[in-house]
Amino acid sequence: MLYREAGQFKTTYAADQQLFPIRQDRIGVITLLLIAFIGVPLFASEYWFSAILIPFLIFALAALGLNILTGYAGQLSLGSAAFMAVGAYAAYNFQLRVEGIPILVSFLCGGLTAAAVGVLFGLPSLRIKGFYLAVATLAAQFFIVWCLTKFPWLSNNSSSGVISTQQLIIFGHELKTPTEKYLLVLSIVVLLALAAKNLVRSSTGRAWMAVRDMDVAASVIGIKLMPTKLLAFAISSFYCGVAGALYAFCYLGSVEPDGFSLDMSFKILFMIIIGGVGSIMGSFLGAAFILLLPILLDVLLPFFAGLFGLPFSSATVSHIQILVFGALIMFFLIVEPHGLARLWQIAKEKLRLWPFPH
Amino acid sequence: MNFFFEVLIGGLLSGVMYALVALGFVMIYKASGVFNFAQGAMVYLAALSVVGCMEKGAPLWLAVILAFAIMTLFGIATEKFVLRKLVNQPPIALFMATIGLAFFIEGLAPMIFGSEPRALDIGIVDEPIEYILENFNMVISRFDLVAALVASVLVATLALFFQYTRVGRALRAVADDHQAALSIGIPLQNIWAIVWGVAGFVALVAGMMWGARNGVQFALTFTALKALPVLILGGFTSVPGAIVGGLIIGASEKLAEIYIPPVMQDLFGGNFGGIEGWFPYILALLFLLVRPEGLFGEKHIDRV
After folding, report:
1. Which of A205, A332, B203, B263 has a CA-to-CA distance to B56 between 20 and 30 Å?
2. Pairwise CA distance, residues B267 & B245, whole Å
3. Predicted pLDDT of residue A1
4. A325 in reach of chain B (CB within 8 A)
5. Mind telling me how many Å the CA of B17 is from chain A's nearest CA?
């Protein structure tokens, strides 16, 4: 009844091309942004900011990056955590070594460095594809983490490569509280998400999708494979790099190379599988799901074990977490390969017809 | 010079151990076109089953049979509940499903059999052979030689199986084209169950060798990561490729670990150990740039 585009006529080209063509969608997005920017800071506690909201936004950004590469351009990558590490360490080094560089510029430079490294490891994608490429990105994962551990210059000569990030100073104001950090992360993520949303419907995005669906056919119709693929690697790594810089500066404050492990890469991959491969919103839904699930299990499992009087250790909880993750991945791939985003889309279609099902 | 050969031979022998795991990948890929990331987890599960059954009081031979039964049942269950539902999906979806499967096993196996590291005694001692030590002054483990022997027997058997048996031919047909194989009356589901059973057997052999050498512990799942560059180098569809790839990777990674860090230390200062972790990947990657289908892989022609 409420969600219906009947009566909304597009009379200009601008109206036809806007990002959210249905009025209800626009209202929904604006409401959501208002809640995120104003409502949440008013009511959420510090724990919510520093333990749930900030990591959620950061991982959503990383998932967005991987989704551009894997979901839109069809190049499977298992090395997203390594590109996050590049972003984090590059931003740290720009802050450290360039006199008076603003923090946002060093985030940008961190992202650009990650993009450059991403292109470097994306080069093999011109010759190899599919599983072979997945293994090539594993090379990035192991090699980058090794480099960050072994070259002391990169971590300012700290032992075992741990870095403690600099203060967050923007226009002379230091961001200290979780609320301020949250607002910074939120602004960056919203900007980049809108940019991504626009990008994937541009000619670049359509070229990516053509390459994803069949690269031979794409090159036959005149899409140049090399720039298209490398651009996907660059932009995807840029997003991951910025996410990594935010992860180091706004979330943890002190990171080590081993923190950006293969497990983290897999986690980001799981986010896009569960959220929806090839969907901007799916990256957010998937990130929320993957981050909240362990918290939920932590609460629920001991409760149920207590209910049935079973002995329960923390080791068992972690085993069950891994098991549930694995089972969910298989479940989603079998039942809904397009993830949570597709479920949301189905819900919207049903809403259009509601209350009449046909 | 002696030292060089010792490192080389040690590397070749450890390469055989990688090849054992890589074989499991090749088996499944050849016969079903699935790149099974869960192979490392299966190795872990197999080794844990053997140790777990022995802890319950079963002798070694019984434990091995029980573990084989577990692996086969597990393979059939995977086929029934996961792969059957994903027929005709893109290969990448199947690959991601096996990542899920790997996590599933990594959570399930230690819940059943316990997660603490344990030793597995299969009656071969891991000590140098005196004859070679005395005459050539080289340390070569008896265990490594046995492992090499086991691997060669396994490879020969698998190669013959694929080439000459009815089932082997059916396996290759299924790998070429699911639908074509179905349409000429090859029972896809049975074939896949057999494949996963055989892959379970290969995982069992690998798990026992690795477990006997390094102890049965979670780190066994990382054997999969060791086997991936081997696979890439040798080609996904080639049984001999897995062996040759394993030998090349094993030897080059050990040589690199010994000879590269000192050079880098002279150049940059500091400690550069741990090259083993990424060297095989970079090597495989560089090789792919020259020959994208691997050493013995089949050349794939894309058609629109």
Report:
1. B203
2. 31
3. 60
4. yes
5. 20
pLDDT of residue B172: 78
Q: What are phi and psi of B216, to 5 degrees?
A: -90, 110
For chain B, say whether A126 makes contact (Cβ under 8 Å).
Answer: no
Residue of B42, B105, B285, B286 to mutate, testing the A interface (most A Cβ within 10 Å of its Cβ): B285
Q: Given B35, B268, B282, which is nearest A139 (Cβ)?
A: B282
Q: Does residue A14 come out as left (phi exceeding 0), alpha (psi in the -120 to 50 range) or beta? A: alpha
pLDDT tens-place string over residues A93-137:
999 998 888 999 999 999 999 999 999 998 888 888 777 888 888
In 3-state terms chain B splits into helix, strand, coil percentages (rounded to 5) of 75, 0, 20
Check residue B304 and give its pLDDT.
Answer: 67
> Could you tell me how many CB contacts below 8 A there are between chain A and chain B?
129
- Predicted local distance difference test score (pLDDT) of residue B223: 82
Instruction: Give yes or no for a contact between B188 and B69, defined as CB atoms under 8 angstroms apart.
Output: no
User: For residue B231, what pLDDT is reported?
Assistant: 86
User: Which two three-digit tokens encode residue A213?
Assistant: 């669906």
* DSSP annotation of A7: T
Residues of chain A with pLDDT under 70: 1, 309, 311-312, 358
Q: Which of B37, B59, B69, B17 is nearest to B205 (CA)?
A: B17
User: What's this model's pTM, rounded to 2 decimal places?
Assistant: 0.90
**Any CB–CB contact under 8 A between B117 and chain A?**
no
Q: Which of B146, B127, B104, B115 is nearest to B47 (CA)?
A: B115
Q: Which pLDDT does position A83 carry in this prediction?
A: 96
- Other CB atoms within 10 Å distance of the CB of residue A358: 3
Q: Is B104 on the interface with A (CB under 8 A)?
A: yes
Residue B25 pLDDT > 80: yes
Which among A139, A151, A333 has CB closest to B86? A333
Give contacts of A325 with chain B, Cβ < 8 Å. Answer: 100, 103, 107
Smallest Cα distance from A57 to chain B, Å: 24
Q: How far is CA A133 from CA A111, B135, B285, in A?
A: 22, 46, 9
Nearest to A54 by CA among A288, A224, A334, A355: A288
ipTM of this complex prediction, to 2 decimal places = 0.86
With an 8 Å Cβ cutoff, is A273 touching chain B? yes
pLDDT in tens, B163-174: 888 888 888 787
Predicted confidence at residue A311, as pLDDT, reads 67
The single residue listed with the structure tokens 């479940």 is: A331
Tell me what percent of chain A is helix, strand and coil, each rounded to the nearest 5. 75, 0, 20
Type of residue numbered B23: L
Q: Does B105 touch chain A (CB under 8 A)?
A: yes
Map residue A174 onto helix, strand or coil.
strand
Where would I find the beta strands (DSSP E) of chain A?
A: 163-164, 169-170, 173-174, 254-255
Chain A hits for B92, Cβ within 8 Å: 74, 76, 130
Question: Nearest Cβ partner of A325 from B103, B225, B232?
Answer: B103
Q: Do B102 and A326 touch (CB under 8 A)?
A: yes
